[in-house]
Design goal:
- The complex is a heterodimer.
- Chain A is of the alpha+beta class.
- A five-stranded mixed beta sheet of chain A has the order 2-1-3-8-9. Chain A has a four-stranded mixed beta sheet with strand order 4-7-5-6.
- By secondary structure, chain B is α/β, with parallel strands linked by helices.
- The relative contact order of chain B is 0.21.
- Classes of the chains: A alpha+beta, B alpha/beta.
- Chains A and B meet through helix 3, helix 5 and helix 6 of A and strand 4, helix 6, strand 9 and helix 8 of B.
Chain lengths: 306, 192
């Protein structure tokens, strides 16, 4: 499967999903003529076209490589890991990925994107016969502005309720300013422990930008937050303007009575995700991840669904 | 669009104002986290001629080696604020005229822009192949083995590298203006 995984990495790194491009174009049209924000988004659109045509990384920071592999009972996770690591090394050689894994203690770059904790691989066994691998490349600039709130939080008057979640998200997007390469997509994880709360937030980033949360309470909060984050006026790249975020996606997990975490995973405009399905030995690629299928897809995407 | 040839004089840099669109022609040198730490700890001599009246680019590129020459495959800016503790001292020591990156920098760097005579140029974050294609030649690389590909000092000859001045030598910063404005909005939206 090494060859298929390599192609998945290439697609994730070089082809921005159509729903994201559409959202960027909408943002561009919303910015004033002749403004730096509009010109920045024009460059972004041209850049994505160039990256796709020449099979080059959309962004030089090819990010944390986050894999979700859904596999049948008969498949060995050790064999899958071996193939993912081999594909990752090859992708680095071919310059689809930048050498991006650094030993935190010695400062030495491993040179091939592998090492303790790199890449990040989540396995999920299921009862189907096919294998599905979802991949997200998440840039470091946007990771650095991601945040976690432990509620209650006195500074922003956030209690353990929907209003507290709302305040936390607005505050995090404000704090990010232009440093996360906006317009961003905001994944929110509510509940869990400190680790699983952020995992939930990152899983939200696999969703399509224009989908809808089937939970009406969360759907309403997502819509409100999308509007309010844009009212901050930070705009693309922090140049000012009306497109600060392209979407807000919220998921919740059960928590301990003692804890209430709100995790905010900021994803830069270069929302590089791709998906691979292997069924009966045949590989097919898609821009719709398995995680995205749990949500209400927009009509155009649903027709093309797996 | 204002055309700037590198190296550039202090006088020409002081003419630039926040909001100016600039295209660069000449040599720019990449330096990010490890390079900045190294500069302020060791003040290496080899960077002196590279940075005098020159430009530092906050960038960790994707590079491809063919034969003996290196080609920039993807080379957009990285987040600049991480260099805030070091940049003012680096600018003063080496007399750097342009800091190129994304996301803007803080008060120490803004003051250095005023004192040294320099500007901060914001490139489009993530526009990596687009910016890489303005690199017409990789002139040299320094400390590649020690620092690795993203952190090494790459000397890029560029032709038409685009950016927008967001911090100038007159004490103005688009980033602090927007921070103030958006803080008011945040307080209103949150209800503080």
């Amino acid at each position: 499967m090494q060859k298929d995984f390599l192609e998945l990495i290439r697609r994730a790194s070089c082809d921005l999903p159509a729903d994201v491009i559409r959202a960027i174009k909408q943002g561009r049209n919303a910015e004033a003529n002749g403004s730096p924000s509009r010109s920045a988004l024009d460059d972004v659109i041209e850049n994505c076209d160039l990256a796709s045509r020449t099979s080059r990384p959309i962004c030089q920071d090819t990010g944390t490589n986050i894999w979700y592999v859904h596999h049948p009972r008969s498949v060995s996770q050790m064999a899958l890991t071996r193939d993912i690591l081999a594909a990752t090394r090859k992708a680095t050689k071919l310059a689809y990925l930048r050498p991006n894994a650094v030993d935190s203690i010695t400062g030495k770059n491993s040179g091939d994107n592998t090492g303790p904790g790199a890449p990040v691989i989540h396995f999920h066994e299921w009862s189907r016969k096919s294998l599905v691998a979802d991949l997200l490349l998440k840039g470091g600039g946007s990771e650095n502005v991601s945040a976690q709130y432990s509620l209650p939080n006195g500074a922003i008057g956030a209690g353990r309720d929907l209003e507290g979640i709302r305040r936390s998200v607005v505050d995090a997007v404000f704090n990010a300013q232009g440093k996360g390469c906006g317009p961003g997509i905001i994944g929110v994880g509510v509940g869990g422990d400190r680790a699983t709360s952020m995992i939930e937030a990152k899983e939200q980033l696999f969703r399509l930008v224009n989908d809808k949360n089937p939970d009406p309470v969360l759907a309403k909060l997502e819509k409100t937050l999308h509007k309010q984050c844009n009212e901050l006026g930070i705009g693309p790249m922090g140049f000012g303007g009306s497109t600060t975020v392209m979407g807000v996606k919220i998921g919740a997990r059960h928590r301990l009575p003692a804890s209430f975490f709100v995790s905010i995973a900021y994803l830069c405009w270069a929302a590089r995700r791709a998906s691979l399905s292997i069924s009966g030995g045949v590989a097919t690629y898609s821009q719709i991840s398995q995680q995205a299928m749990k949500y209400k897809l927009p009509a155009t995407a649903a027709r093309k669904g797996r | 669009m204002i055309r700037i040839e590198l190296p550039v004089s202090e006088k020409d840099i002081r003419k630039l104002k926040v909001g100016d669109e600039v295209s660069l022609h000449g040599t720019i040198v990449t330096a990010r986290d490890a390079a900045h730490k190294l500069m302020v700890e060791e003040w290496p001599k080899f960077v002196e001629p590279l940075l005098k009246d020159g430009a530092i680019y906050h960038c960790g590129p994707v590079m491809k080696k063919t034969g003996k020459s290196w080609k920039a495959v993807a080379a957009g800016p990285t987040t600049s604020i991480r260099e805030e503790p070091y940049e003012a001292a680096v600018m003063d020591h080496y007399k750097v005229r342009l800091i190129i990156g994304k996301g803007g920098m803080g008060p120490k760097t803004l003051k250095a822009c005023k004192d040294v005579g320099a500007v901060y140029l914001h490139a489009v974050g993530g526009a990596a192949p687009l910016l890489a294609d303005t690199v017409v030649r990789t002139k040299a690389v320094h400390l590649l083995d020690e620092l690795g590909v993203p952190e090494a000092f790459w000397e890029f000859e560029v032709d038409g590298f685009k950016g927008i001045v967001t911090m100038d030598s007159h004490g103005k910063s688009l980033h602090s203006t927007l921070l103030r404005k958006s803080k008011k909005k945040r307080d209103a939206i949150i209800g503080l």
